[in-house]
Amino acid sequence: MALDLTVLQPKLERNLWKPGIAETTLEEFLQTASTFETIEQVAEELHHAINRVSGEPTEVALVAPEGGGEIRMVSTSLRLTDVVIGDRSAAFAWLGASEEPLWRGVLDGNDDVGGKDTAALMDLVQAEVLVPLLHRGDLLGLILIGSRKFRRWGQREFLKGLRTYATTALANTFLGAEAQGWMGVTKTLGLANAIQAALMPEEEPIRRAGWELCGLFRPMAACGGDLWGWRELPDQKVLIVVADATGHGAGPALLSAVAKGTMDAYAQSTGADCDPSELLASLNQAILRVGQRAYMMTAFAVVVDLRKKVMHFANAAQNFPFLIRGDTLEALVVRGDQLGAKAGTTFKCHTAPVKVGDTILLYTDGIVEAGEPVAEPYGERRFRRLVQKMGPVAAAHIPNRILHEVETFLEGQAIHDDVTLVAFELIGDGASRL
Hints:
Layout: H1 2-16, H2 19-33, H3 39-54, E1 60-65, E2 71-75, H4 89-95, E3 102-103, H5 113-123, E4 129-135, E5 138-145, H6 156-179, H7 184-187, H8 191-199, E6 206-208, E7 211-218, E8 226-233, E9 237-245, H9 250-270, H10 276-291, E10 297-305, E11 310-316, E12 322-325, E13 328-331, E14 350-353, E15 359-363, E16 370-373, H11 380-389, H12 398-410, E17 419-426
Antiparallel strand pairs: 1-2, 1-5, 3-4, 4-5, 6-7, 7-17, 8-9, 9-10, 10-11, 11-14, 12-13, 12-15, 15-17
Helix pairs in contact: 2-3, 2-6, 2-9, 4-5, 6-9, 8-9, 9-10
């Protein structure tokens, strides 16, 4: 018995848990996440992914809102088709305190009302593991897993990745409901706010050898349609995307989630061969499919090749970014059609040299239109003069400095649009100027 516990069982568990399988499964889930139209499809793909990694038949259920806003439990197992979860508001409120996977055993003896309610919810399907789909306290849904094998620490990374991609998949189904006028879904469990928050990188400066990046996002309302993201690529390349969905509120926020998932899927599948123009074409196809021309988006994508000191970029009706080089300022004047307007739209990839000390500044129109419609807008010319007079400033300080100047100009007037500012700087020699 001792030999079995100390030698044979760990060996069996290592064979069952293969990181290669987990990574491949996550990649495949990400590739399809933005194509789901119903929560049943999301549940089916979750069931497939979790069973593949666990290596044994495993019960999987998804708890999420559907079109009318009511909360359902969905599983591919016939045994769970008629499960009624009832009022689980105490469990939802209690689960909003953690993003981590939760194991059933830790709830034994829990006297908290929310903990008891959560245990009862898991007991409905004999779940061993619960994965909250949430961000910053706002709950999107729940994944319930029956297998004990997901107790091990090695599978936390898989569950965290699955949580992120399941959020994208759910966002796609919510957007379809929103487009059909089923507003209740976006009012359930703070969905639109949570999805918007989950998309955006933290505002702390990102530091790597040879470059620094800092972004800022300020929504006009609780949620908005702006999006920015970045990704390190192989061969010392960095992808940066800034986008702006038309309109405000839940629909554009959900569209941004679909765009983020599409961007991640394309970058992961292409790696060092990531082409900004092809990325925009993929985004156009995804947004046209889910937005059905009711929602559209503008976007600018750039890939900086740190080794060759060159950048490749493409535009889809987004504001022209600036290249700041010493005391000079150059607009990257590249045009392209809006995303989601028509099928088959193509985008041209442009190339320009970059060197140490250069900063690329990307932004959405909320910053130049600040003040409208009640006052004089800040405007393109004033914005350009502001950037020119800042002089040599580290990328980490540029977004907040610009926002401060614009807010000072407005003299207390609110900004009536989403604002996104992203600064990327080549610093060279592996040194940081922060």
